[in-house]
UniProtKB/TrEMBL annotation:
<protein>
    <submittedName>
        <fullName>Peptidase family M1 possible nickel uptake system protein</fullName>
    </submittedName>
</protein>
<keyword id="KW-0732">Signal</keyword>
<feature type="signal peptide">
    <location>
        <begin position="1"/>
        <end position="24"/>
    </location>
</feature>
Length: 241
């Protein structure tokens, strides 16, 4: 309880000073890695700190964070907007797959309020494989300005290397710092290579989260308030069997 209280105080301090170095909270998607045609697939959106399993109750999400956009892109590139419902600790949505292949779930939200002199821009994604087909298993399915993708996500297993590619403005995000978080909270920071790629070998089974944050030094106005930079973050779920 004491640890969570201290984290809450740290988060409130961020709201006052808006420092991207201090800000660790993220929006992320969780869903089962596989789905079945004709059966509803649950999508959950959480806010908090994945590494500590520190989940912020849906009723306490700041500003207009709850107004995120959530879409599912089918293997044949059909895009469907989903409506999410608030539960105690998350927002929940469903879709029903109707074809074999890899579905991409993408979330995006640019926060209405400017904190200090910074705009916050959240992005998240995950993939769902239906059947044995690999149609749709491509980075281009996610059109968010900042994104992560792994072809290996559909077959990720313990002790087998997983490659993850990062993109920013439809270009490879080379020489950028990423973070991999294991199901038990273990973290590893990695730098992408010239191809915008990192790799890691999962030791434990379960959900891994990859995070990529980038601060764009640009000035402007957002909802009538001036800003000097835009903090953009992407999160990506990989389920290891």
């Amino acid at each position: 309880m004491k640890s969570k209280t201290l984290k809450s105080i740290a988060f409130l301090l961020f709201m006052l000073v808006a420092s991207p170095q201090l800000f660790a909270h993220a929006l992320w998607i969780e869903t089962k890695a596989t789905g079945t045609k004709g059966k509803a697939q649950e999508i959950s959106v959480f806010f908090g700190e994945f590494s500590d399993n520190d989940i912020t109750p849906a009723s306490k999400w700041f500003s207009d964070l709850k107004d995120f956009t959530l879409v599912v892109i089918s293997p044949s590139k059909k895009e469907t907007k989903l409506t999410a419902t608030a539960l105690e600790n998350k927002y929940q949505a469903f879709f029903t797959p109707d074809e074999d292949g890899v579905y991409t779930i993408a979330m995006h939200h640019k926060v209405k309020d400017v904190y200090g002199t910074m705009v916050l821009d959240y992005n998240s994604s995950a993939t769902v494989t239906v059947g044995n087909a690999v149609k749709g298993n491509e980075a281009a399915a996610n059109t968010n300005i900042i994104s992560l993708f792994s072809k290996d996500a559909t077959t990720a297993k313990q002790k087998a290397k997983v490659n993850v590619n990062a993109s920013y403005e439809a270009k490879v995000a080379k020489e950028q710092k990423m973070k991999v978080i294991a199901p038990n909270g273990w973290e590893k920071e990695l730098w992408s290579n010239e191809n915008g790629e990192i790799s890691f070998t999962p030791i434990w089974p379960g959900n891994y989260m990859v995070e990529f944050a980038y601060t764009e030094k640009t000035a402007g106005e957002h909802n009538g308030k001036k800003y000097d930079e835009i903090w953009k973050m992407a999160t990506y779920l990989i389920t290891v069997k």
